[in-house]
Amino acid sequence: MDSGGIPTVIMMDATNKLALDNENIANVRYNDNRQEVASGLMVNTVNTVGGPVPILVAPGNPIGSYTSDLTTSPQAAFTTGTARDVYLLDESTMDFVWLGSEMPTVLEIPVGVNGALTKLFIVFQMIGLAVRIPTYNAKIRAGIA
Fold first, then answer.
1. What's the pLDDT score for residue 123?
2. pTM (2 decimals)?
3. Where would I find the beta strands (DSSP E) of the chain?
4. How far apart are alpha carbons 52 and 33 in whole angstroms?
């Protein structure tokens, strides 16, 4: 927020969400900090200066983890370990851009190309994420094991 952005969502993996829930379980009397982000999809929120920010959990392992060397970090208790990231995003600064058609293109592969009499279709689209103001978004190293 010091850079000018207003965070609209926190993205994390299930491991970090579980660690966050376990850390805050002693402070929660009842779960009233929920927000509907899509029809019927209720998620927890974190209160910030800019208002409540929803926490979205990415299913599977799209964020992943990595081994990090923290010897130069202020976290002197950790030297190396497995790190996971949490993303604090301002969605108003992000767009999906496409090359060619904005809709998927269906490529029909001729019969017999794969050595069998089957009809193959490939759904193809060239899209990417464009972040217009990167300083409005933050990556936070959250999980160290």
1. 92
2. 0.68
3. 9-13, 34-38, 41-48, 51-58, 65-69, 80-89, 94-98, 105-109, 120-124, 127-131, 138-144
4. 8
